[in-house]
UniProtKB/TrEMBL annotation:
Keywords noted in UniProt: ATP-binding, Magnesium, Metal-binding, Nucleotide-binding, Nucleotidyltransferase, RNA repair, RNA-binding, Transferase, tRNA processing
Database matches in Pfam families: HD (PF01966), PolyA_pol (PF01743), PolyA_pol_RNAbd (PF12627)
Cofactor(s) listed in the protein's UniProt record: Mg(2+)
Record flagged with keyword Magnesium: yes
Protein known as: CCA tRNA nucleotidyltransferase
Length: 487
């Protein structure tokens, strides 16, 4: 429940804070209006921490710059064309500075062909608020007067825990289809329901998302995954068909179940894995930023199943090599969404390796197999630990306990081998230069073959000292020469 008295008190504290007071006094002295707008107002009323300070004003960008220069340590105008000026404002008491953004009242219009608005400056705060995405983000607090402005009923929607657009949702989403993704993100972030008219508009207008750039869609997807419960937003995107427009592999997980062939609900399983991965991430790495590559891998780890499903005689169902297929599908989709190469590499590695552990659960591996597991996971080992544990969603408590104990064991063995053998380095005793010296050869393919031979020894037998490695290398090289002579 929204505690209105506490919310009003928090709004008052926000308005009275040194940074806000400094900005508000400067604009008032210059004869301009100023209001805190959007997220900070919403979060104050919800008693949520507010990290950003966004202001709106009737001042134009040149006037904003003139006003903030004396009270700031830095200014930037990369958003000048959209009326936005950024600045770092000094706290007059502590000397610390905080980043703020100040934007001229807007009255944008859209051409319906792209999501980029025709920027038009407005003349009133109420007009500016009417163009915003949701009523809970369309509230403002005038400063220094401390007057709440809420023309579209945002407070009532906060109380009802409801997301609703200030204008007709068909008009709002028609103007900017990206707002459909923002509905999913705010639903997940705030734990709010989306009102039926807004859901209906999302379903009707889902195809208009085609005018939005992949980079902007990726940005909203990332913000959704960074929430504490992205599953809520993902369900909304799937149910409205919006996710089909940019990540169709996830809705495709809702496989039809033949009456004679039964298998786990892959879609529900994937959402459970995502939620469990987030819980483990927060448990193992408290206070750190949300791990987007891990969360993407958890959501997408089984997307190879629809393409590899095979109905077997007798009612069985198999998904052979869905890990490899899924990694390929993920790479293609993430590239289309313009994800960076590091994220794509992390996600595809995790998907490709997510089944590897289950062979361990059937029987303990040799030290060599454990070393290869670590080598193949590389920098993704910590994430792979989490993903593999999260992938256990069985309701059979005995089976779940057995798998958990098996993974406890493999992590213990990795730690022991790492302590004894510097497992993280995973390099042979001799580097490429030393290999050339020992064998008396020049750089070329033979050096690579020799290096891989020594690495295989390292994986199979553990650490070798340099003298032993040299002897084994010479013997291997002699055998290579003998083999070539007999061909």
């Amino acid at each position: 429940m929204l505690n209105m008295a506490e919310g009003v008190a928090r709004l008052g504290a926000l308005a009275a804070s040194p940074i806000v007071s400094t900005v508000a006094d400067a604009f008032a002295a210059a004869g301009f209006e100023l209001a805190i707008v959007g997220g900070p107002v919403r979060d104050a009323l919800l008693a949520r921490p507010a990290n950003d300070l966004d202001f709106t004003t009737d001042a134009r960008p040149d006037d904003i710059l003139r006003i903030v220069r004396p009270i700031s340590t830095a200014q930037w105008d990369v958003g000048r064309d959209f009326g936005t000026i950024g600045a770092r404002i000094r706290d007059p008491h502590t000397g610390a500075a905080q980043q703020v953004e100040i934007t001229t009242f807007r009255a944008d219009s859209y051409d319906g062909l792209t999501r980029k608005p025709t920027v038009e400056f407005g003349d009133s705060l109420e007009g500016d608020l009417a163009r915003r995405d949701f009523t809970v983000n369309a509230m403002a607090l005038r400063v220094p007067a401390r007057t709440l402005v809420d023309p579209s009923g945002g407070v009532e929607d906060l109380v009802a825990r409801r997301l609703r657009t200030p204008a007709d949702p068909a008009v709002s989403f028609g103007d900017d289809p990206l707002r459909m993704l923002r509905a999913a993100r705010f639903s997940a972030q705030l734990g709010f329901d989306v009102d039926p008219a807004t859901v209906a508009a999302m379903t009707e207008l889902r195809d208009t998302l085609s005018i939005v750039s992949p980079e902007r869609i990726q940005g909203e997807l990332v913000k959704l995954l960074q929430t504490d419960d992205p599953v809520r937003g993902i369900r909304l995107l799937v149910e409205t068909g919006v996710l089909d427009r940019f990540l169709p592999e996830v809705p495709a997980l809702r496989l039809e179940v033949d009456e004679h062939h039964h298998h786990k609900d892959v879609y529900e399983h994937s959402l459970t894995v995502l939620r469990q991965a987030i819980d483990l991430e927060q448990l193992r790495f408290p206070g750190t930023a949300p791990d987007v590559p891990l969360r993407l891998a958890a959501l997408l780890h089984d997307i190879g199943k629809p393409a590899t499903r095979k109905l077997e005689p007798g009612g069985g169902v198999t998904f052979h090599h869905h890990d490899v297929k899924g990694a390929r599908l993920a790479r293609k989709r993430l590239q289309a969404l313009r994800f960076d190469s590091d994220t794509i590499a992390s996600v595809t590695t995790l998907i490709e390796l997510h089944l590897r552990f289950f062979g361990y659960a059937e029987g303990a591996w040799t030290d060599s197999a454990v070393r290869r597991y670590v080598r193949d996971a590389g920098a993704e080992l910590s994430r792979l630990h989490i993903l593999t544990r999260a992938d256990v969603t069985t309701r059979n408590k005995r089976k779940a306990a057995r798998l958990a104990a098996a993974y406890d064991d493999i992590e213990r063995r990795i730690d022991e081998l790492a302590a004894a053998e510097e497992l993280g380095a995973m390099r042979p005793a001799l580097d490429g230069n030393r290999i050339q010296e020992v064998l008396g050869i020049r750089p070329g393919p033979e050096v690579g073959k020799a290096y891989r031979y020594l690495l295989d020894l390292r994986l199979d037998e553990g650490m070798l000292d340099e003298a032993d490695a040299e002897a084994r290398l010479r013997a291997w090289w002699a055998a290579q020469g003998a083999a070539a002579a007999t061909e």
